[in-house]
Amino acid sequence: MDRSLPTVLFPVVAAAMAVVLGIAGCGGRPTLGGENREETHPMMRRAAALRKANDLDGAIEAYERVLDRYPNAARAHLHLGTLFDQEPKENYARAIYHYERYLALSRDEKTKRIASELLTRARWSLAASLAERAPEAAVLIGELKRENKALREEIAALQAKLAGAARPVSPPVPASRTAAVTAAAPRVATVSTSVALRTAPLPRPTPEPAVVQAQTHTVQSGETLSIIAHKVYGDANAWRRIYEANKATLPSPGSVRPGQVLIIPR
After folding, report:
1. pLDDT tens digits, residue range 123-179?
2. What does the DSSP 8-state code read for residue 216?
3. What pLDDT score was predicted for residue 27?
4. CA–CA dist 257, 214 (Å, integer)
5. I need a labelling partner for 261 at 20 to 30 A (CA). Which of 85, 165, 218, 222 fits?
6. Position 244 in a domain
7. Structurally, how many domains does the chain consist of?
8. Is 73 in the same domain as 144?
């Protein structure tokens, strides 16, 4: 008996496979079923409605919730990029991040060309904003240098204090030992007490490691990981070091909020 599927069932099977692949996504992560379907997802439509109502903070938060649930949602990255690339947000570092993520995830060549142009413009805007803030950066660098010098002096003082506390003290010699040494050398008229009581030197104590205080940074309004990295390292591209050190409290690089206390690795 022919057990092959009837020809009429092939479209049904193909559709079922497409649904399964859409749910599984790449690497087992949930997806929205393709870039063309992303805009119709309820979470994406809610974010778009908030943006249309000029609730930009609510729209940003809604798109970030989409990325928390669907990390490969390319259109969510594109919308976040455009939100951060215009007034009143004008957070070019975050716009650049989301444009780059969109280009890495998207397969829509036409939209990718537009996003690539937006990415180039955002990079120029970021460079111009950094140039305008050069005097402020110089003041910040001076403050960091003074803080670093004060920390070095504090560490040196602690090391000196620990070294003094660990210095060995010679124990007193019992009188019986002094008498025994004197009796053992009757022909010597005078014997130096320091020679008679000389003992084997004690081993040098191992100095304890200096205590170094961990550095933290409280996020200010408008700051991103790239801006913080530029402030503390002088290199905006070093933002990933801060993100890796704070993954426990940062679900994504774009989830920085004012008032957060971040660990700044050295």
Report:
1. 998 988 888 776 666 676 777 788 888 888 888 888 888 887 766 666 665 666 655
2. E
3. 40
4. 21
5. 85
6. yes
7. 3
8. no
